[in-house]
Each structure stands twice: as C-alpha cells, then as structure tokens.
Amino acid sequence: MDILPFFSLGAGFLFYALIKFFHKVWWIPMRIQFLMGSQGIRGPSYRFIYGNTKEISTMREKSMGGPMELSHHIFPRLQPHLHSWFKLYGMSFLQWHGATAELVVTDPEFVKEIMNNREQYYPKPEADVFTKKITGDGLVASKGEKWTKLRKLANHAFHAESLKARVDTQEISVEGIIDECKTFYTAGHGTTTLLLSWAILLLAINTDWQEKARQEVLKVLGCGRPNSEGISRLKLMGMIISETLRLYPPAVSLTRKVQREVRLQNLILPANMNLNIPALALHHDPKIWGEDAHLFKPERFSEGVAKATNNRPSAYIPFGLGPRVCVGSSFAIDEVKIVLAMILQRYTFTLSPNYIHSPIQVIAIRPKHGVQVVLHAF
Ligand code: HEM
C-alpha cells in the first residue's frame, strides 16, 4: 500500500496546526502590541507564549512572601506589577496574560463607559468549564436572554417581593435553581466573610471609630435585636463599611472582553483583547482620594460616594458598576451591619498580640493568618 498520501496528509495537518498556533501566540500579540503602541499605549513587552505571567508571579511572590507592617498601604504589596508599570507606562497600559492582551484602564471616564455599556461591546470573558462547575452556570457567568431572566428573578428575590419571585421561579428548571444556589454561595459567602473580617480588624485598631459605632448602635437599637428599620439608620456604620470596602475590596479587579473592534473614548480597541479595571488601584489612588488614601478615614463617606471621590464615583467600585453590578450588595451590607451591631452591643475588642498582618490576594484579598481579636465583655 502506498503510504505517501497519508504521510503528506499528516504533514499537511501538522503544518496547518503550527500556522494556527503561531498565528495565535505570535502574530496576533504582535499586531495588537503594534496597534496599541501606535495609539500611545505602551506596556511590558509580550514574551512568547507566557506573556508577562512569569514576571508578574515572580514580583508577587517576592512582595507577598512575608508579613508587612500594620498599615493599609497594600496596593504595592498585592499588585507590585501594576504599581511599577503605572509608573513606567502611565495609568493605561497593555499587559499580557499568556497570549491574551489585557488593557489596564484606570481613567474613571473609561471605567464608566466600559461598565455601563448596554450594547454588549464589553461582555464578561467566558468562564472555563471547570469554574462553571464549581460556581454554577448562573447569574455571574450568564449572558444575553438567560442573564436578563435570571437578573430579574434575583432582583425580586433580594427585594423581598416573594410572591412575584415565586411565580417567576416556576419558569426556571431545577438545574437552574441549583446553579443559582452555587452562584450565590460562591459570589456571596466568601466576599461577605472577608468584608466582615477586615471591618473587625479596622475597628480593633481604630478604637475611636469602634466607640463611635457602638454609641450609634446603642442609640438606634439599644440592646435589642437589630431590625431592618434600625439597620438602615446606622449611618456611621455604613461609612465604616464603605471605607473597609475601599481599603480592602474583596474583588481586586474586574475584567471585560472586547467582543469586536470598538472605539473607547480616543482609542480603537481590536477584538479579542481583555480590559482590566483594577478596583484596588483605583481605591488607593492619591489623585482621587488625596495623600491620605491608605489611611482608614470613614469620614470621607459622610456625604456619599460622589463627594468622597471628588465627583468621580466610578473610581469606587467594590460591587462593580452598571447593569452587572452586584445583585447582593445591600444584602451583604445588611448582613455585616447585623453582625457588627450584635458584637458591638456586647463587647469591646482589641487586636490580639498574635495577629500577623499579611494581606494576600488569592482571588480575593484575604488575611493570610486570619484576624485575631480579644473580646472584652462589658
Ligand atoms: C461584600 C460582599 C460582596 C462583594 C464585595 C461583591 C462584589 C461583587 C462584584 C465586584 C461584582 C461585579 C463583578 C463584575 O462586574 O465583573 C458582583 C457581582 C455579583 N454578585 Fe456580589 N459581592 C458581594 C456579595 C454578594 C452576595 C451576598 C451575593 C448573593 C447572595 C452576590 C451575588 C452576586 C451576583 C449574582 C453577581 C453577578 C451579577 C450579574 O452579573 O448580573 N454578591 N459582586
């Protein structure tokens, strides 16, 4: 039998696969780098296949290796690559996650335009199969009509319109409900726990604010159980929570995809690149918050977010922004208010001498060794 045709067919396939591979890992990155460079957007050079991932992980391993002094100046520690590249390349630059281009965007006007876009120019990047299995193919990951339907349902559920929600629920399958449960658990539980942990740390260090919060709780709720009307009147506590979410936002950055070539303000963005909105960087930017950006000062929020950000509210995005803003934000804040109120009603607390300040970022920002406090009953 003549095996030559099979051999050349195999070689043809191999050649095609190689071309495809190089197109993806070399030609496209070079083209995007050139297109963005010609518009004044610079950044660390693309390295074959790896992009900048190796540099990023080396820098992060070094900066997050050990504990730090007890300060909230955590941006250079958690995101050393962004910290140094902002200085080198400016506040918008191009970095590479493997062969995927990622434009880091910090201008609040850009952030607003990307996050508020309703024409779906900037969808969420596709979650991989494994992530979907764990987190559920629910509201966080869904798109298009499925998202519209689930979002409506979730909005009802969180606004206690239980009858209407029950009617709507009949439209979704059992698998759909399981996916939503997984989604709410993964999106809501860890994030809220972290918010509570950081708030406890901040109040244990700033005992003046702890006392102010306690006085407010005692005035509004007395020693009784928190109720929804009372919870909504805990203004100082609301400011403390906002400031905690500014300094230690559980979601460090938000990512979107450029679906097809699009104009973003003065830039033309090629298709298939990602956009990275670094919430932590925005929350710690002295140009927005002032030179005391890394200090715990809940009074910034006494007249709301617009005033605190000097009229750039899109620079404060602990729950995201626009149509895909967190659906559980009020629920999370109420939950944290209830727990804090119940602790403050019964105890004063100070930081334990065993506490080691070692914030790390593993998906969310977390205290590596937990937060230990000493409770004093009164
Ligand atoms: C402090 C606590 C929380 C934080 C910091 C937080 C943060 C966020 C952020 C930043 C987003 C937007 C992500 C993006 O645009 O890419 C988001 C979306 C979402 N969050 Fe939360 N979240 C919290 C609590 C919760 C809770 C308690 C629930 C549910 C019980 C929840 C459910 C969701 C869902 C379903 C979405 C997706 C909404 C959509 O795409 O339409 N979150 N969250």
TrEMBL record:
Keywords: Heme, Iron, Membrane, Metal-binding, Monooxygenase, Oxidoreductase, Transmembrane, Transmembrane helix. PROSITE patterns: CYTOCHROME_P450. Gene3D superfamilies: Cytochrome P450. InterPro entries: Cyt_P450 (IPR001128), Cyt_P450_CS (IPR017972), Cyt_P450_E_grp-IV (IPR002403), Cyt_P450_sf (IPR036396), Cytochrome_P450_Monooxygen (IPR050665). The chain crosses the membrane at residues 6-27. It is found in: Membrane. One of its GO terms (molecular function) is oxidoreductase activity, acting on paired donors, with incorporation or reduction of molecular oxygen. Its main location: membrane. GO terms for cellular component: membrane. The keyword Transmembrane helix applies. Coiled coil: none annotated. Belongs to the cytochrome P450 family. This is Cytochrome P450. The lineage of its organism: Eukaryota, Viridiplantae, Streptophyta, Embryophyta, Tracheophyta.
